[in-house]
Queue: 3 jobs
Job 1
Amino acid sequence: MEGNNTNSKTPINQEHSINNSTLSMFQAVIPLTVLITMLAYNIFFVESQEWFGTYTNQIILLLAGGVAAVVGFSNKISLITMLAEVWENLKSVFIPIMILFLVGALAGTWLISGVIPAMIYYGLQVLSPEIFLPASVIISAIISIATGSSWTTSATVGIALVGIGTALGINPGMIAGAVISGAYFGDKMSPLSDTTNLAPAMAGTDLFTHIKYMTITTVPTIIITLVVFGVISMVITTSGNTDINSLTDTIQATFNITPWLFLVPFVVVVLILLKTKPLIALLAGVLLAAVFSLVFQSEILETLSNSKLKTISNAVFIDTEITTDNEKLNDLFTAGGMKGMLWTIYLIICAMIFGGIMDGIGALARVTKALLSVATTVFGLFASTVISCLGLNAIASDQYLALVIPGKMFKKAYEDKGLAPENLSRTLEDSGTVTSVLIPWNTCGAYQSGVLGIGVGEYFVYAIFNWLSPFTTLLFAALNIKIKQLSKKIVN
């Protein structure tokens, strides 16, 4: 998902799952049941979804992790074993957390430098409401294919598209769904993406065979996505040209708008294409935007604080709010800086603690093996793989484990059924890579909602490509369409 240019996760050979023969299936699902029950109660029965305050989801994850630890103790799993897995999980998200901090700084400096306002200004003139949603899918897909990273796509053009679409009066959930659909299509099909390299490595096939085989299910899914967004664009009510003109006039009156501002995102994208480490690329974007703010937006810096450097510092670390005469723009011209990323970062840390304990007690391996035992037919094997990937995205809160564990567990089963390894690698991507963003406490869901400022619950329905992909792969398996065999004999 994030792409090898964005997230330097634990090396593939270190991703693992602990087996525990003494743990029963009933015991393995107890923590998961507790987690789902508390989350469901909070969502459906608690006003404002703050059962324990602002950090309700984080506390629920920790409580479920505590239940998992109790299950582990009852099976004589040592605290050291569980803590070791938690530590491995926390180490694996160190780089993503640093990236999140820099994305917060990026949002703040890109606001005060005029980069985001310029993107919105020119975008309002080019992207009409009638084509905005499908255009957002296509733009995000192109950037994501080029960079191999859905995270980078969201942090750059994604933020701009949300700003433009919101200014046009389009539902933010729709905009985020379009951006995420395009970003994950591009990420999934890009040879630069780490998940696109990881899936065939786990299944035992090569990269380009995997990408070619993915087009069978991925192309129909993205076409359906574009058609649906095209229909939505024709029926929704958006702001008229008068409102758009009012917005662009206000932006131009507030900021010094010039095409030179696009040099900042251009440099970031070029650095990523040159395979510069993501932290360096994003830091360059922050520093360059800070310089541009001094050059192009000197008056705004002075109005926000008596010290220009203090204004820049606040944009990086705390928050920034630029007030205009237009209420829509006031909502858009607000950035939380690094501080604004703390909720998301705490969520990721708590998710890694829960996932680490679940892995430490052997629950992840136990659930996956149970699914494998009921896969007696070809379709059953595909279905078990999909369920396993979806489950691990929710249980382990980690997209990589959702690819690695099922990949290792199901590889032999696909061979025994006479199925080519690309069947497994494609199914891993169709169900593991793209659905991670649909889980609020998964690192991917937490990142996207934090960066775009739109909750998973708001964009879930509109992330059409992401939730449709598993159904597409199951449909093709059920109808035996393009299911490649190891031999001419079809094994049922």
Job 2
Amino acid sequence: MIGMLTGRVESVDADTALIDVGGVGYEVRMAASDLGRIHAGQEARVYTYMNISQDAVTLHGFLDRDAKKTFLQLIKVSGIGPKVAQSLLSTLTPIQLAHAIADNDAVALAKAPGLGKKGAQKIILELKGSIDLSQIDEAHTAETAVRQPVDTGTEQVVEGLISLGWRQQDAQQAVKEAITDNDINTPLAAEDVPRVLRFALALMDRGR
């Protein structure tokens, strides 16, 4: 089983990233929130879960250990497969998801595409007693304290697109393509932010 990959990000698509590890390209399915944190040319460490089915072998990836741990808990719930678990992690962070389960908040869980209210209630029923909120909150606090956030400037562009009515996932993808297609370096210089915004808007308008 492949539990972790460390390599160069070759490309990022709407729901996958291609990671080059020693000349071998691994296609990894990831949540939109994680895909928004990486870009082509970046070195990345991705924690992975290999799903083997009748039709395919699929790698699911996570930038944080907590996200992978949450994913593994979710797929243990009857009727919840890797695709739905990944959808949940694209909709809620592991901490938000844990609190939603603890608070019996099926409405918050059901916002994930492909889940539905019955699936949300099943997750709450089967996982509520197995999640220790105190440990999750402590781990998040410790991780936040040591993590060095890197503002690449792309977040500002994505927020601008969202304010214009575009979906976050579409905005993130357009910004990545705009940067790659026009050979713009990150972190973005101040003068590059409006340029990337114009390029991304042009891409999204063409995709309508």
Job 3
Amino acid sequence: MKAKSNSLFHFTKTIENLKGILDNGFCPRYSLEDATALGHEYMGYPMVCFCDIPISRIIDHTSFYGEYGIGMTKEWGLKNKLAPLLYCPAEGVIPSFANFARKLRKTTDTDSPDYLELRSNLMVHVYDILPMIKPLSGKMIVGGSSIEKNFTQENEWSYVPYHEKILYKTDFDEEVEACNMELESSRLEFSPLESV
């Protein structure tokens, strides 16, 4: 049995969602992700998620995420800046990275004329990297309930468009619709030749 598929799959729960993807492409949406290693319960990033799970392991995945799916070539994924997630222990690189970002935000040493530009550039990279790091296991919100999940079993690849906002659980419901509307121009389009 192969450990990974040669394709990237995206699954959804309804045929209407699949038809929308076929008509309009993949539109990123903010999703709450486990952020306990960062000192928050959940943080929301804009993304479209795929997986390269081999077909022999697909049943558990489709029963959880939905039975309607589409497969894309990995060449299409790489061309569109999809990347596999980095799964880390909760006490490893995730809190170290978050601690670095917190220190950077709190630094008051502005003697260097390049400080503000450096800080701004580094924070852009923080926003790029955080959505691509996930704990080995953690909590996920499904249907309004929090459930435990082994994330490494998902073989996740994600597309994360440029964004300047992270949503937190406390303000997610109030802000998510407006934030998602701003992502309409970040759709991933494809042709039938790029699907598998």
